[in-house]
Structures are given as C-alpha cells and as structure tokens.
Design goal:
Largest sheet: none
Structural class: mainly alpha
Radius of gyration: 21 Å
Helix content: over 70%
Number of strands: 0
C-alpha cells in the first residue's frame, strides 16, 4: 500500500489486496470442503429454543459463558474500527507497520496456544478465562502507549 500510495494509486492497491484476500478465501473454502466431518447426531435433551435460552440460560454455566463471550465480542467489534483509524491517522503509521502490528496478534496467538493449552489442561479452562479477562484492559493501554512513544520519538528528530 505504501508503494501504491506514493504513486497516487491507493484504490488500485486496495483492489489488489482485496483480490488476493478473495483468492485466499476461495482456496480456504476449497480446503474446508475437502475436510471430513462426521454427521452430527442430536440426542434427546440437547436441543433448546432461543426462548428457553433467554428464560433460563443465564442461570446455567453455558448461559453465563455465552453472555460473557457475546459481550466481549460486542466490545471488540465496536472498538476495533477506531483502533485502525487511530493507528493510521493519528499516529501516522505506514501501512507496513500497521500490517506488522495487526499480524503480531495472530502470530502471538499461534505461539501461545500450546502454552495456554497445557495450562488449561493442568488448571482448567475457567482459570484461563479469568486470567485473560483480568489482563485484557491492560493490552490496549500498553499497546497505544508504546506506539505513541515510538511515533513521538520519530517525529521529534
């Protein structure tokens, strides 16, 4: 994108990126269709309606978990577009640094999944959820603070 931006062809750059993303998504659909998935057998008592979930769902562990995950996703989906604009407009990061920062979360997840998996096997999934929930607010504080210090240092030179 930085290359296209310098030549004034930003829309062509986005078109190229979206075309690559579309091809990758179509390839992933092809791979998912090749994957074997056994037929799901619904046992008696497993099914409940949405109304049943709303009336008695919050009293069960499953209902509490669904509520927690739903609210967490709602917060992320509301805030994430603002983070992208903040990084690109306010901090004036290049597209390369924006991509590196965005990809770092995925790379970190791939590295940490085996470690968290072993931790969850030993101590339980609930403790993992509690620990992660406690530390989630600090992620944004450190994230923006370190980036803004870096940009201020770059701009002061």
């Amino acid at each position: 994108m930085d290359l296209f931006k310098t030549k004034g062809l930003v829309f062509i750059g986005f078109g190229v990126l979206f075309s690559i993303a579309m091809c990758a998504r179509l390839y992933s659909v092809y791979l998912f269709r090749k994957q074997y998935s056994p037929k799901f057998k619904l046992r008696r008592g497993y099914y409940f309606s949405f109304k049943d979930f709303l009336t008695r769902g919050l009293k069960t562990d499953f209902g509490k978990f669904v509520s927690f995950v739903s609210l967490m996703h709602l917060a992320v989906y509301i805030g994430s577009p603002f983070v992208a604009v903040y990084l690109l407009k306010q901090l004036e990061l290049s597209y390369i640094w924006f991509t590196v920062i965005t990809l770092s979360a995925s790379v970190y997840s791939l590295i940490m999944m085996p470690i968290w998996g072993k931790f969850a096997d030993k101590y339980g999934n609930r403790l993992v959820l509690v620990l992660c929930t406690i530390f989630i607010p600090f992620k944004g504080v450190f994230y923006c603070r370190n980036i803004s210090d870096e940009v201020r240092g770059r701009n002061s030179e």
